[in-house]
Each structure stands twice: as C-alpha cells, then as structure tokens.
Amino acid sequence: MNQKKVYMDYAATTPVDQDVLQDMLPYFSEHFGNSSSIHSFGEDAQKGVSEARQQVSDFLGSSPTEIIFTSGATEGNNMVIKGIAVSKKIREEYGNKPHIIISEIEHSCVIESVKRIVKDGLAEVSFIPVDKNGIVSIETIKNLIRPETALISVMYANNEVGTIQPIAEIGALVTELNTVKKKKIFFHTDAAQAINYLDCNVGNLGVDMLTISAHKIYGPKGVGALYIKKGTPLARLIDGGGQELKLRAGTLNVTGIVGLGSAISKIKEHAVKNEDVKKLRNKLIDGILSSISRSSLNGDKEYRLPNNANISFEGAEGEAILIMLNQQGVSVSTGSACAAENLTPSHVLKAMGITDFGAHSSIRFSLGRQTTTEEVNYVVSIMPGIIEKLRKVSGSLR
Amino acid sequence: MYSKEVMDHFQDPKNMGFISDHTAVGEIGNPACGDMMTIYLKISDDEVIEDISFETLGCVAAIATSSMITELAKGKTLKEAEAIEFEDVKKALGTLPPIKVHCAHLSVEALRKAINKYKETK
C-alpha cells in the first residue's frame, strides 16, 4: 500500500516521542550498568532511574519513595488487586475475605485479577454499575461499602469509550468515610489513559494508589509505574532481589524507566494542544454522524477524553469495518466480538446498556499528538462508502 | 491474518444480495460472536439450485465463507449442496484462522437450513 497511513489508535499505543528516545539512548550501551550495582556503572544507571522517579513523583505530586516501577499498567493493576487481597495486614484486620469494589468497566487486567482472587477464595467483590454514558454514581458506591471493604478501584478514564469517572469525588468520599470507619478503605485508580489529559495530582484525587503505563503517553512499551501512598499495606507479588523497596523484585528496566520519566515530564508542555485534539475529535464525530445514517456515539460526549470517539454503525460489523479502513490506510480498534481473542463483545459497551449488536458494530477512533485536520477529513470522507458497502452485504439497505 | 482468497471474497463478494422470488430462505445467527447470515435459494422443478444469494452481517471471515458457499452450491442439486461440509469451504478459501473456523460452520448451517425449509414446504 503506497497510500497515506493514518493512525487513529492512540488509545492502544503511542509512538515514542523523539526527545524521549534521545533521552533513553545513552542508557542502552553507555550507562548500561545494573542500577542495583554499587560501582560506577551501577551508579550511572541509578542516576537515570532516580531522575525518572523524581519526574514521575513531581508529576503526581507525591514523594519519590512512593513510586514503584513496573512492567506496565497490567502488572501495576495486578499488584494492587492481588497485593491487597493477600496482604497479611489486611487479612488480619479485615478477615479472610476482604471486600473489594470495582467498576464494571475496568480494564480486563483488573477484572481478571479480581475474578482470580474471588475464585481462590481470597476476597469478595462488588461491581459498581455504570449509567448509559459509562459513568459511575457516588451514591451507588456508598451503598456498596461494607465494614470489610478494603479497596475501591475505579479507572480514571476508560480505554474504550474515553468516559471520565469522578475520581476526586470518590476520593473525597473515601477520605470522609475513613475519618469514622474502623477499617480504612484504600482507593486506587488506573490512570493509564488519563495521564495525557487529566489532573493526576494524587492529593487532589485522594487516591492511595495510581497506575501509569509508559506506552500510552509517548514512552516505550514494557514499563510503567505504580504510586503507592506511604502506609498502604500492599503485599509483594514478585519475590527476589529486594529491589523497589522490596515491593517488586527484578533488575530495573533502566532504559524504559528513563523513557517513562522523560515522557511524563513532557505531558504538561503538550497539554496546551489538548483543546486542538478535542476540536479535531469533535470534527470527526460530527462529520461521521452527519454523513452516515443510523450511526451513534457511545458514551457521554462531554465527560470523555478529548481524543476518543467510539461510534456504532447499524448494519455493519466492526472487524469488517476495521479491515476496510485498514485497506485504505487507516488504523482503528473495534469492540466487536469477532475481533476479540475470546469472541466476546466489549464488556464496557455491554455495561453501558449497549446491545450486543451495538458492540458488534462499534469502532473506536482515538486521536493523538500527530493527528492532523487532513487526516480527520480523509477518514470522514471514506467512512460513508465503507458503511454503505457493508450494509449492501448485510442487506440492511433494503 | 487472512488468505488472499478470503480477502478477494471479502472485497468482491459473489452472489451478494436478495432474490425477490426465492424458493427458500435459511437465516442463522451465531450467539457467540453476533454474526448473522441469510441464504436465499431459487430451486428449479428438478431440484437444482438455479440461483443463490446471501446477506451477511459479520466479519471478514463470515462474509468470505458465505460468498464462497454460494459459489460452491450454485448449479448443484440439493443433494450435492447438502453434502457440502465446512472443510470444503475452508479448503476453497485456502485457509482460515482457527478462531474463524466457526464462520465456515455457520455458512454450511445457513445453506442446510434453507434446503430444509424447502423440503418442509414441498
């Protein structure tokens, strides 16, 4: 294909920023030491790690000792869910089955981790439903809380529909409850998608733990960070050499960590362009909805990340739309079961009350730093033809 | 992920559409992945499929397998058409990713459903 290539799947992953890459390079072959080694090579590598740790903690408004580096958000989220469930301190105080509350639209790594600990008899779980816009209600959370509730985990911005949860309000609720509650409730948010666009100051949010992923913020894949507020009784999942304050063993991924620090330090300077991304995204939504009948936006238009558009097209299936877009150089994602490894439709769309047909025909467009007006115009221009062709095949034009 | 034959049938489906004076219809939905396939048959007096068409709401594999099965069944006797197995569809398409083999099964079921419908109303 020698036509133009348009990437509209930034929510899946982002390209590494060129400056971030430059910052990382010296740590591959020059300052390549093991950051735990106490000689000069180790010290050089350790310097890079310390700087990155400071960059992450500055961004979050935390102390550097509250930042643990991980292999990404999946690991970070696993650490939170399983670490609380098996924590000796938690189990002593909250009983053999501490209670965990999560939303119905968490990322699969949270949901699967919770399913696992429930199956193993280690915890009990309650799910917070979302409304048709994909947002949780504070009242519902209040009603789900029990004396043995040890953890509430709600993602800040959803990866599929981009809808934004009231994390600061939930944090305030938890803080207030903890003044009278005998057993403290710990509050975690998966901020992987939110870091680029939303206020992630941990004080403002009132969180005890927060998950970050580097490859969502123009950093490298395979690295992330977990903020753990001092005093949070999290058990270690990965045993070994005692790295990361004995919370996560393993030689540090120095190059990745340097990349994460560098990427996060550049967020604020790029944030000025968030309004532009929003305008482009709205142009895309308006262009598509106005030119294609029986198409609808999934999720709240306002309380959503500025780069996300998730749209269902009646009479056309998601994977087929995706492949046709791919043939014309455009890369997106779909919530269709046909494209999922386990052949189930998007649990997020389902939780929002969208029918299986709606999920089956949904496409997620997620824009990013490199998206141009030209690209948006191109996508808007080719979508009607694609949907019309697939509707002919499905007989839904008859 | 997909073979050339699959992509050809996806981009340029054969026998796509509706036969207004069809003799029988077979409609099938797959609850697992949500695909819907409909096959229309025009059957001659001597029980030959003289015309066949399909309408499919589904993924690339679903569209390709329904297109392929109409090619395989066109002009055949009912008996011959009934004997078409999913392996025949899969083979004719070169190959199908394992996770998409259920689409080939679906196309066979839709065709057989249409044939059975005809038999019921005979």
Describe what you observe in this structure.
The complex is a heterodimer of chains A (398) and B (122). By secondary structure, chain A is α/β, with parallel strands linked by helices. Chain A has helices at 18-24, 26-29, 40-60, 73-85, 88-94, 108-119, 138-144, 167-180, 202-205, 254-265, 267-271, 274-291, 318-327, 347-351, 356-360, 373-394, and strands at residues 6-7, 67-70, 99-103, 124-128, 149-153, 186-190, 209-213, 224-228, 295-297, 308-313, 330-331, 333-334, 362-366. Chain A has two domains: 6-15 and 272-394, Alpha-Beta Complex (Aspartate Aminotransferase, domain 1), CATH 3.90.1150.10; 18-265, Aspartate Aminotransferase, domain 2, CATH 3.40.640.10. Chain A has 16 helices and 13 strands. In chain A, the strands form three sheets. A seven-stranded mixed sheet of chain A has the order 2-8-7-6-5-3-4, sandwiched between helices. Chain A has a four-stranded antiparallel sheet with strand order 9-10-13-12. Chain A starts with 5 loop residues before the first strand and ends with a helix. Chain B has 122 residues and is an alpha+beta fold. Chain B has five helices and three strands; from the N terminus they run αβββαααα. In chain B, helix 4 (86-92) crosses helix 5 (101-121). The A-B interface holds A 315-320, 323, 327, 336-339, 341, 343, 345, 356-357, 359-360, 392-396, 398 and B 2, 10-11, 13, 16-18, 32-36, 38, 55-63, 99.
Number of helical runs of chain B?
A: 5
Return residue spans of chain A where pLDDT drops below 50 for at least 5 consecutive residues. Answer: none
What is the structural class of chain A? alpha/beta
Question: What strand order characterises the main sheet of chain A?
Answer: 2-8-7-6-5-3-4
CATH architectural label of the largest domain in chain A: 3-Layer(aba) Sandwich
In this structure, how is the largest beta sheet of chain A organized? Answer: 7 strands, mixed
What general outline of chain B do the C-alpha atoms trace? globular
CATH topology of chain B: Sufe protein. Chain: A
Q: Which structural category fits the helices and strands of chain B?
A: alpha+beta
What is the H/E string of chain B?
A: HEEEHHHH
Write down how many β-strands of chain A occur, each being a DSSP E stretch of 2 or more residues.
13
**Range of strand content of chain B:** 15-25%
- Work out the helicity level of chain A: 40-55%
Spans of chain B of at least 5 consecutive residues whose pLDDT stays below 50 are none
Radius of gyration of chain A: 22 Å
**How do the SSEs of chain A run, as a string of H and E?**
EHHHEHHEHEHEHEHEEHHHEEHEEHHEH
Count of the separate structural domains of chain B: 1
Q: End-to-end span of chain A in angstroms?
A: 33 Å
- With helices defined by DSSP (H or I, 4 residues minimum), what is the helix count of chain A? 16
